[in-house]
Structures are given as C-alpha cells and as structure tokens.
C-alpha cells in the first residue's frame, strides 16, 4: 500500500485521528448486538480486507486498525515504518447465529495471500503479513484446524504462513482509513488494481470467483467426498407427533435430561449422531470420549456448518449453548475443559440425537461420512 500511496500523493504526511484502546475483555464492537462475537484478522491492506469482509452476510461491522505491537495508540506513519511491531488488521464484529467463526475465516482466506509472511502483494514489510489474532482457545482451535485443512487441500501455490497470535489490544486506525473503499472509490479502485491482489485471487480461485463463489469449506468437503445438504425443520405438528415427551422437552424447550440415565452416554458403537428433529449430521463416535459427566461428550462436531452456538444466561454464569443449524434444536452446551486436540467438551443430550450405526450410514444417506472411519 505504501508505494502506491506515494504514487497517488494523497497520503505523504502523518494522518491524525482519534484512537481507542480496546482490551481483549471489552471489544467495543461486541456491544452493537447482544451476542456478537469479534474476529481480528490481518491480510495486508486493511482497505481491501475491510471491503471484502463487510460483504459477508452476518457481519455487523468491520473496523480498520492495528494490533500486535507494544506502542500505545500508534499512527499509520509509525506502523508503516515497520518499527512498532504492529500489523495492519481489521476487527470484524459478526452475529454467530448467522455466520460462524470458520465462515468468517473462509471469507478472509479467500481474499488474501496467506502464504507470504513478508508482506502482502505490492505492500512489503512484516507489518503487512497475514495473521489471525485469536480471542480465545476456541477461536485458536478452529483457526488451527481450518488452516491445516486448507494446507492439505493445496489450493494455494505455496504453504500457508499465516501466524496465529493471541489477541491483546486493538487500536482503531485514523478516520481517514475507515470505509476508505466507500468514500474514495476511484483511488481505492486504482490502488486495488495496481496492488495485484485480484490478479492473484483470480489465478487461485478463477476469474469467476465473484459471480460464482465457492467456499474453501466446500472445496475441502468435495475433496473428502462430502456433499452438503440443506436440511429442513418439520412443522410443529409433525415434531410433536414424532418426538417423545423427553425429546420434545430437550430440543424444543431447552431442557436437560438426567445424567447416566440416557441412551447414549455410554454408547461405544461406531457411527454418527444426527439431529433427532432434522437429521443433520452432528457428531461422530471417532470424537466421542468418556467425560465422566453422564452425558455423551465429544471433542468436536462432524461439521461446524451444522451447529451454531449462542450465549445462554439461564444460570448465574453464562454458558455456550449448542443448537443445530437447520432444525434449531437445543442439543446441549460446549465447555473448555475437554481433552486434546481441541480442549473442548461438547456435552450433548441423548434425547436430542439419533444414533446411526456405521453399517447403516450408507443406506440412510450418510455414506459421505464413512471416511471418518478410514483411519
């Protein structure tokens, strides 16, 4: 960005602005909607990453700024000198009920070069390198896992070198930089074209990537033989007719069944667990473990696409509720006291799920998930 700005001669002096110090415990954008979450991402020029992430449905706001350094309230001139250890970043506020953290990362990685740790396209220097600043262990695990899958996919011409960095503080960039692509359309268009970003992305994802977008998750699933299905929630009358009293209580009224007195807490069969209401694939026996709680526990879902999380304030302390995406069934809660590799414990209600044995998966339409048992 620095070289092209010099060519345009519209940013040759230090820019003034108002700065806000945002701590890891009080992300100012998270207050814009009750259960909003925040992702902090670095992908080179923040004008470009801001414009690309704001197009993702479910994103509430994107702010350009700086993170990763030690100097308080750095200016653009100081950061662009490369001496403050900051990186140009965007802070993305999103609604987790509409878009998952992985989907935010998916949009992010499809609009940057994650393989260059010395800059970004025409902008050179470590202050333009790609990075994911994770806000908690769950974000770290999701980012690590997703980046490993992208690397294995081999869609980029070189290995991914995007850093995972614990989030500490975020400093809002000068007003001049916010929504630059909207307020300075011609200059932004010239910069973006000259930077080489879109030429690179067209080579990687095809020149029809904007009109016919294919997500990285779709590519990964296709390479694994997985075809995503859009499940549907039955009508209320059908749900009442098909579910037992306990199943209805758990899934529709957010109830909890008794520990050690439910169908699957000690089930050791090979297979997958699907939503009792919609049939969405949720968890696999390959990720099931004995947690000692008396409920079926898993380290991760089969596919993040089919589960959503939200904050549950029913008890004195907040918990993270887990629901199915299309069936909108209450499944249970996820806690951060699980074993490796995720450190998570998805504590589910048996009454919210139906077990499909490995030998029945093909005939019941879940054959695409048999790869889970190949190892």
Keywords:
375 residues, alpha+beta, six-stranded antiparallel beta sheet, 25% helix, Met_Sox_Rdtase_MsrB_dom, EC 1.8.4.12
Structure, explained:
With 375 residues, the protein is α+β, with helices and mostly antiparallel strands. Helix content is 25%, strand content 22%. The strands form 4 sheets. A 7-stranded mixed beta sheet has the order 1-9-3-4-2-7-8, with helices on one face. The longest helix is centred in the middle third of the chain and has 17 residues, at 137-153. The protein is elongated and about 65 Å long. It starts with a helix and ends in an 18-residue tail after the last strand. Residues 2-32 have low confidence and may be disordered. Residues 1-24 form the signal peptide.
Q: Helix and strand layout, with pairings?
A:
Blueprint: H1 2-8, E1 21-23, E2 37-42, H2 46-53, E3 59-67, H3 76-80, E4 87-94, H4 101-109, E5 119-120, E6 123-124, E7 131-134, H5 137-153, E8 163-166, E9 169-172, H6 180-183, H7 185-195, H8 197-205, H9 216-223, H10 236-242, H11 245-253, E10 271-275, E11 281-284, E12 288-289, E13 297-298, E14 307-312, E15 319-324, E16 330-335, E17 345-348, E18 353-357
Parallel strand pairs: 7-8
Antiparallel strand pairs: 1-9, 2-4, 2-7, 3-4, 3-9, 5-6, 10-11, 10-18, 12-13, 13-17, 14-15, 15-16, 16-17
């Amino acid at each position: 960005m620095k070289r092209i700005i010099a060519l345009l001669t519209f940013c040759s002096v230090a820019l003034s602005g108002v700065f806000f110090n945002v701590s890891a415990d009080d992300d100012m954008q998270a207050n814009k909607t009750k259960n909003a979450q925040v992702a902090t991402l670095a992908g080179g020029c923040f004008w470009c990453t801001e414009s690309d992430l704001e197009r993702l449905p479910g994103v509430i706001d994107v702010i350009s700024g700086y993170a990763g350094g030690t100097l308080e309230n750095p200016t653009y001139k100081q950061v662009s000198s490369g001496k403050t250890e900051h990186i140009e970043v965007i802070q993305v506020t999103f609604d987790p009920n509409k878009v998952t953290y992985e989907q935010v990362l998916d949009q992010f990685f499809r609009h940057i070069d994650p393989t260059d740790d010395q800059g970004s396209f025409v902008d050179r220097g470590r202050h333009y390198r790609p990075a994911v600043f994770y806000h908690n262990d769950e974000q770290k695990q999701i980012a690590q896992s997703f980046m490993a899958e992208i690397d294995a996919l081999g869609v980029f011409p070189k290995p991914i070198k995007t850093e995972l960095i614990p989030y500490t503080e975020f400093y809002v960039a000068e007003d001049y930089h916010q929504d630059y692509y909207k307020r300075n359309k011609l200059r932004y268009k010239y910069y973006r074209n000259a930077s080489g970003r879109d030429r690179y992305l067209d080579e990687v994802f095809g020149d029809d990537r904007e009109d016919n977008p294919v997500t990285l998750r779709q590519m990964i699933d296709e390479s694994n033989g997985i075809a995503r299905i859009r499940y549907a929630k039955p009508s209320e009358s059908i749900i009442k007719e098909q579910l037992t009293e306990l199943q209805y209580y758990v899934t529709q009224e957010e109830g909890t069944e008794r520990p050690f007195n439910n169908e699957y807490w000690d089930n050791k069969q090979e297979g997958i667990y699907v939503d009792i209401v919609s049939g969405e694939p949720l968890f696999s026996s390959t990720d099931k473990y004995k947690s000692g709680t008396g409920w079926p526990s898993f380290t991760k879902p089969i596919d993040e696409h089919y589960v959503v999380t939200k904050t549950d304030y029913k008890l004195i302390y907040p918990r993270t509720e887990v629901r199915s995406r299309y069936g909108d069934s209450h499944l249970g809660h996820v806690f951060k006291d699980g074993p490796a590799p995720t450190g998570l414990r998805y504590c589910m209600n048996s009454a919210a799920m139906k077990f499909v044995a490995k030998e029945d998966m093909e005939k019941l339409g879940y054959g695409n998930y048999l790869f889970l048992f190949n190892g």
